[in-house]
Amino acid sequence: MASERPDILVAIDLGTTYTGVAWARPQRNQALQSPIQIIHNWPGSSTKNEQKVQTCLIYSDDGSLSSWGYLCEDEDPLERKKQEFFKIFLDGDTLEDAHRQAVRQVPASVREAQKLISDYMREVYAHVKSTVELHTGISHVGWQELVVEFIFSVPTTWRSQEIINAFKECIAKAGFGREGRYHTATVELTESEAAAVGTIKNSTIAFQTGDIFLSVDAGGGTTDLALMQVVEAREPFPALSQMNQVDGIGIGSTLIDQAFVSMINDRLSKFPDLTPHLPPDCAERLVKSERYRTTKHKFGERVYQSTCYKLPLDGVPFTLSHSQARIEHGRIVISWEEMQSLFDPHVENIMRKIHEQLNWMQANGVNRLISYMILSGGLGSSKYVRDRIQHEMMTSLHPYAHQVKVLQAPDPQLVVVKGLLLDRLQKLDSGLAPVIVSRVARASYGIVCKTKYNPAIHLDEEIKTDAYDGEQYAMSQIDWLIRKGDPVSSNTPICTTYTKKVDPKDPNRTWESVVMISDLDPHLLPHSMSQKGAKQLCVVKSDLTGVGHSDMVMKRKSKRLFFQGKKFYLCTFEVRAIVAPAELRFELWFAGQKFSGNHEPIKIAWDVEGSKCGGGR
């Protein structure tokens, strides 16, 4: 079934503040391809037909889930335990920072953050299932019997395999890829890569082969950047090559909201006489109001230009005015400069990341200038942000971007989820040719092995004599298959051939391979386990149970003088590492074919410390 065309494709972009879902029914005839469907009938969204659903939960006092998404708006947050922004706390470093800064309503642990994500995604899964069944009429066929692929994106800031594994555990517990025997759930692209795919596959820009563009996906919690070059511009199967390591920063619209709450609280705290007239959560209510959201989203647009903005205070009578606190008839006055001060620090941080990419181009002598900068995401859809970045590009006159056009992606808040689907659909229609054909490794990956002893190289290393051939080998050496900064083909797996000596009387057909990871620059990589600088990422257990002696090569005793070696078989097989955008996957190949028996041929045991290292690819 794995090779069959899926009946349903579902793409999910779990966001810090909002989550988007799109789905499609792939057709064998591309001309009959059904359009991408965006789920917008979210519970509690009334008649607004929102394209995304709020990423939030409310729990009852007994710990049971009370509401999710837009349904949370119907409940008093003071009466219930509301949870938001929990996605970013899957990263232990982010969680520790929040604890140090005494941020309110932060999960106590990464495990608690995982539970929140699973609880939320369980509700998303149930709604997706019912919506797809409703709009396709396939419920009579049986959801469990369909071939359904769920495709997820992850932030570029999630650089370690540990976080990716934790996220995959969350979506599995929520039901994705579990309910039907032909259901799968995969992490396919980082958000910056998905945004780049969505841009080139669904854009009015006439890209030319060789064009370089920078995708800047600024969402609720993170801003992800990807520097891409167009390898093939021809429709319907364009191709992109990643030029530099994808990058990200913890900057998003939620930080603007947090700064706004702090600004309002600071202003109101100076006037104790106001306290009896204001609700205790005045600033929190204001930041969630429709008027504030409109002011933030429209800020910078010419038709919405104003010297000040007057925002109604929820729970405050129209008779309340306070000149010093700048409250007029129950409305608080926010100046244009105050709104600008909320945006500018984050725009400046995004600009620093943009200049890092441009400086990399200059340092590496790239022979073309950047043509376009494509903004997407909630913050990226802000006209103020776009105008500021365009102004900075024009005034800084960076040699690689002085003619760059700063544009908004089509459907900027949906470009990630559409990019996920468009990439998978291209693979299906083109015979597995992805949009992104080459990536840049964010870490180095190697295999622990033994090599023939060389006294000039293996000084102070552990040396053993092989019982079969009598040769001396240096143990615990590291063969680096992928080096940080290397271009890695999306279509070509990294293959490692193993030749194991097998005793004719030994029925064992399982062997373990240790995979190492390092963040060091390639010229500093250690050559063996005795040197520092690398950590164990995982142990890959290859199970070739079922392979008989007839499938192996018989070897005689060693002909080395005075050495009585044993008879043995040679079993040769391949472990193929698929360098996916956000993770590593492994396959076992034997005799030129992907091996599968009545058992799981490959098992991965991730190392706790090593999986924290590197960048998830």
What would you say this structure looks like, in words?
The protein is of the alpha+beta class. Among the domains are: 8-190 and 418-423, Nucleotidyltransferase, domain 5 (2-Layer Sandwich); 441-612, no CATH class. It has 11 helices and 31 strands. The strands form 6 sheets. Strands 10, 11, 12, 13, 17, 18, 19 and 23 form an 8-stranded mixed β-sheet that branches. Strands 1, 2, 3, 4, 8 and 9 form a 6-stranded mixed β-sheet that branches. Strand 1 (8-13) and strand 2 form a beta hairpin. The longest helix has 28 residues, at 336-363. The model has no long low-confidence stretch (mean pLDDT 88).
Compact summary:
The chain is an alpha+beta fold and 617 residues long.
Provide the descriptors you would attach to this structure in a database record.
Nucleotidyltransferase, domain 5, alpha+beta, eight-stranded mixed β-sheet, 617 residues, six-stranded mixed β-sheet
Sequence-ordered SSE layout with sheet pairings:
Layout: E1 8-13, E2 18-24, E3 37-38, E4 53-54, E5 56-59, E6 65-68, E7 81-84, H1 92-100, H2 110-136, E8 148-154, H3 161-173, E9 183-190, H4 191-201, E10 212-218, E11 223-232, E12 239-242, E13 247-249, H5 253-269, H6 282-287, H7 290-298, E14 308-312, E15 327-328, E16 331-335, H8 336-363, E17 372-376, H9 377-380, H10 383-396, E18 405-408, H11 415-430, E19 436-440, E20 444-452, E21 463-465, E22 472-482, E23 487-489, E24 494-502, E25 510-518, E26 535-543, E27 553-555, E28 568-579, E29 584-590, E30 593-594, E31 602-606
Parallel strand pairs: 1-8, 8-9, 10-17, 12-19, 17-18
Antiparallel strand pairs: 1-2, 2-3, 2-4, 5-6, 5-7, 10-11, 11-12, 11-13, 14-16, 15-16, 19-23, 20-22, 20-25, 21-22, 24-28, 25-26, 26-31, 27-28, 28-29, 29-30
